[in-house]
Every structure is written in structure tokens, then in C-alpha cells.
Automatic annotation (TrEMBL):
Main location: membrane
Superkingdom as given in the UniProt entry: Eukaryota
Domain annotation Lysosome-associated membrane glycoprotein 2-like luminal: ranges: 28-170, 218-296
Name of the protein: Lysosome-associated membrane glycoprotein 2-like luminal domain-containing protein
Disulfide bonds: C151-C187
PROSITE patterns: LAMP_3 (PS51407)
Subcellular location: Endosome membrane; Lysosome membrane
Length: 302
């Protein structure tokens, strides 16, 4: 029997609202023209989106589902247009990545997220039915031409009031072959990653389910996020214990686990912009925690 893919669980926590677990699918997206592929991406992504309700704002975590398809305005470019990958998912939501290149490097020149607030399953109690479009040109995905951009690390991109969190990214644009080039441009987060690689999948297939021993009190860790200019823009000191319940397809049941975050095996990353910040904590390649902080402007704090 072939080993199953390790299940990556993303957890998003929002001030006041508590935490949500999101099982992330690895999605493959290809833009083709004629018989040739010009953009191919294998990635996991999730979106944390803050929207208005009658009672105030609410934040939801939306995964890019495995059912996402390439469509819309996707194109290989040419005639002065940029290559554009547009993924469609759910009830009229889209994620678009537009590329640009000079002869040595290519990059994601802009990221567009479109979400449909009429979708009441995803956005309960939204007080608007608009389709909202947010866009950013600071995406930070750059690779050498004829290589695959690789970024296994969790990397958040802030776009308007939303944060797109990518992980397990392998992507190539301006492709010359039929498949991703074996030559890779590895993102800086992966180069500096001190995180131990994820443990190999268990080789025993019918092993009895280990009875989890409850962990003790979690230790406090100190986690920081730096700006592009190296200035620390977010500092968090906390001890974290997670009580996670998720459905295991392998065991065909919902599993409840209590996990302590081990500060010495946890790396932090993230990003800041003038009105919000994201802190991503990664432990052992299988636990990703994203914290989204939004600046609330209030006369109380002036
Ligand atoms: C695509 O491939 C098929 C079969 O290999 C071939 O018949 C067809 O002409 C090709 N089309 C283009 C646009 O290259
Ligand atoms: C919003 O307010 C109404 C009335 O006060 C209440 O019934 C409802 O539960 C509130 N919704 C949320 C999400 O707090
Ligand atoms: C939705 O609610 C927010 C505040 O919660 C308010 O500022 C906004 O005008 C409302 N929008 C609509 C379309 O009612
Ligand atoms: C983003 O890319 C798309 C597709 O290339 C383009 O239509 C749009 O104008 C771009 N937006 C910005 C701000 O560059
Ligand atoms: C937005 O969602 C609503 C309700 O789910 C659906 O009827 C509508 O077609 C969607 N809009 C787009 C642009 O897909
Ligand atoms: C391509 O762009 C990069 C960064 O913008 C620059 O360092 C490099 O010199 C450029 N190469 C060419 C051939 O223009
Ligand atoms: C990329 O590959 C194509 C086709 O193999 C080749 O023509 C081109 O010179 C290569 N570009 C670079 C920068 O290596
Ligand atoms: C990978 O890079 C090496 C050295 O730069 C080059 O010789 C080789 O052709 C490249 N392979 C592909 C598939 O582009
Ligand atoms: C990665 O490490 C290199 C040297 O080890 C350092 O120059 C660089 O600033 C580090 N990058 C990040 C994003 O930490
Ligand atoms: C770094 O950028 C922040 C805003 O992004 C600014 O407040 C700070 O002064 C900058 N620090 C340096 C050393 O340039
Ligand atoms: C999973 O469990 C449910 C009830 O416990 C059972 O009805 C179902 O057939 C099981 N599915 C598989 C694939 O074993
Ligand atoms: C990490 O910390 C735990 C508890 O403080 C300790 O038992 C363990 O040996 C440490 N591991 C490493 C790799 O330092």
C-alpha cells in the first residue's frame, strides 16, 4: 500500500473569535494554450477574510478547495498581455496571479482575490451581497526563468482586508517544457528554515491507534515578525495549547487531540502592513497557525 499524503492542518486564530481548523488541499492548476502548458502551479492556500455584518465585523477562514479550477481570464499572455492564472472556486470566488518577466527572472506581479458575499454559507450574516475585489502588487514570489518557484514554508500575503496564506508552493510560469522544471528557485523562507522536516509517513499501515498522552503545561515561546526593512513589527510571547478535532479519512472518525506548541521546534514568519499583521507559527511542517491582527482605529487609543 502506498503511504497516504500527510494531512496538513492549518489553524487560524482571530482575536476574540477563537480558532478554526482548516484542512488544506494540495491544488494543481494549469494554464494551457493549444497543447502546451505555460503556467503550472501546485499549492495550498487559505484565505482569511474580514467582512461586515449588522453587528460588526467577522473573520472567516476559507481554504482553496481541491475542486478549484482554472478559468475566467486565464491566459498565456502575449500581445502585450501578461500571463494570468485565475482559479475559480465555490460560489463565484476567484484567486488570480499575474506574472511578469525580464529575460532572467519572472515574478508574480499582482495577486487578485475576489469573493462573493452573497455566499451565505461562507459569509454568514454578511450585510452586503457585493462581489469584493482586492488586489496587491507586493506578493514577493520571484524565480529565475526556466526554474520552478518552490516555497514549502507558510507565506502570507496581505491583500486589502484579507490575507492569503500559501504553503507547499511549486509553480512555474513562462514554461518551456511540459512539466515543472526540476531546477528550482527556492524562496528565502525555505532556505532559512530551521524547522525539522516533517516525519516520514508511518510504514505500518494497520498499527493500533496510539492513545495520546495528555501533554503538560505548554512552555512560553517568543515569536516575532519583521518588516521588509528588517524592523520587528510584531512581537508575541505566549504559551499555546491546541485542542484540535478533525476528521480522519484513514480511521473514518473524528479525532480529538491536545497538542502543545513546542517553542524550540516552532518557527515564526509573517508580514505586516499599515493596518494589519499576520503571524504564522509552524511546527514540524504539519502544524501551521496563522494569527491575523487587524488595527482597529479608535479615539480611545489616540
Ligand atoms: C495537439 O496535439 C494533437 C495530437 O497530439 C495534434 O493533432 C494537434 O494538432 C495539436 N494541436 C496544436 C495546436 O498543436
Ligand atoms: C446580532 O444581533 C442580533 C440582535 O441583537 C442577535 O440576535 C444576533 O445573534 C447577533 N449576531 C451576532 C453574530 O452576534
Ligand atoms: C454593514 O455594516 C457596517 C458596520 O457594521 C456598516 O459600516 C456598513 O455601512 C453596512 N453596509 C451595508 C450595505 O449595510
Ligand atoms: C493585475 O494583473 C491583471 C492581469 O494581468 C491586470 O488586468 C491588472 O490590471 C493588474 N493590476 C495591477 C494593479 O497591476
Ligand atoms: C454569488 O453567490 C450567489 C449565491 O450563492 C450566486 O447566486 C451568485 O451567482 C454568485 N455570484 C457570482 C458572480 O458567481
Ligand atoms: C531582471 O530584473 C531583476 C530585478 O528586477 C534585475 O536584477 C535584473 O538585472 C533584470 N535582468 C535583466 C536582464 O534585465
Ligand atoms: C529558457 O529555456 C528556453 C528553451 O529551452 C531557452 O530558449 C531560453 O534561452 C532559456 N532562458 C534562460 C534564461 O535560461
Ligand atoms: C537545469 O539547470 C542546468 C544548469 O543550469 C541545465 O544544464 C539544465 O539543462 C537545466 N534543466 C532543465 C530541465 O532546464
Ligand atoms: C536568511 O539567511 C541569510 C544568511 O544566512 C540572511 O542574510 C537573510 O537575511 C535571511 N533571510 C531571512 C528572510 O531571514
Ligand atoms: C522600517 O519601515 C517602517 C514602516 O514600514 C518604518 O516605520 C521604520 O522607520 C523603518 N525602519 C528603518 C530602519 O528604515
Ligand atoms: C465510516 O463509518 C460510518 C459510521 O461509523 C459507516 O457508516 C461508514 O460505512 C464508514 N465508512 C467507511 C469508508 O468505512
Ligand atoms: C525542546 O524543549 C523540550 C521541553 O522544554 C525539551 O524536552 C526538548 O529536549 C527540547 N528539544 C530540543 C531539540 O531542544
Amino acid at each position: 500500500m502506498t503511504p497516504t499524503h500527510p494531512c496538513v492542518v492549518g489553524i487560524a486564530c482571530f482575536a476574540i473569535l477563537g480558532c478554526v481548523t482548516v484542512a488544506q488541499a494540495l491544488v494543481t492548476l494549469e494554464v494551457t494554450e493549444g497543447n502546451s502548458t505555460c503556467i503550472k502551479a501546485e499549492l495550498s492556500a487559505s484565505f482569511s477574510i474580514t467582512y461586515d455584518t449588522a453587528n460588526g465585523t467577522r473573520t472567516v477562514m476559507v481554504p482553496l478547495p481541491g475542486s478549484a479550477v482554472v478559468g475566467g481570464a486565464s491566459s498565456c499572455g502575449g500581445d502585450g498581455r501578461s500571463p494570468w492564472l485565475v482559479a475559480l472556486f465555490g460560489d463565484g470566488h476567484t484567486l488570480g496571479l499575474s506574472f511578469s518577466s525580464n529575460n532572467s527572472l519572472y515574478s508574480v506581479s499582482n495577486l487578485t482575490l475576489q469573493y462573493n458575499l452573497s455566499d451565505v454559507t461562507t459569509f454568514p450574516e454578511a450585510n452586503s451581497t457585493d462581489v469584493v475585489t482586492v488586489e496587491t502588487t507586493s506578493v514577493g514570489m520571484v524565480a529565475r526563468v526556466n526554474t520552478t518557484y518552490r516555497c514549502i514554508s507558510v507565506s502570507p500575503v496581505i491583500v486589502g482586508g484579507a490575507t492569503v496564506t500559501f504553503s507547499n508552493v511549486k509553480m512555474e510560469a513562462y514554461m518551456t517544457g511540459d512539466d515543472l522544471s526540476p531546477n528550482e528557485s527556492v524562496c528565502t523562507a525555505d532556505q532559512n528554515s530551521t524547522t525539522a522536516p516533517p516525519p516520514p509517513p508511518s510504514t505500518t499501515t494497520a498499527a493500533p491507534v496510539p492513545v495520546p498522552t495528555p501533554p503538560g503545561t505548554p512552555n512560553q515561546g517568543s515569536y516575532s515578525v519583521s518588516n521588509s526593512n528588517g524592523t520587528v513589527c510584531l512581537l508575541a510571547r505566549m504559551a499555546l495549547q491546541l485542542n484540535i478535532s478533525h476528521f480522519s479519512a484513514l480511521q473514518n472518525k473524528t479525532i480529538q487531540e491536545v497538542v502543545n506548541l513546542l517553542p524550540n521546534q516552532t518557527t515564526s514568519s509573517g508580514s505586516c502592513d499599515p493596518s494589519s499583521a499576520t503571524l504564522v507559527l509552524t511546527q514540524g511542517g504539519t502544524t501551521n497557525l496563522s494569527f491575523l491582527f487587524t488595527l482597529v482605529t479608535s479615539s480611545l487609543y489616540r
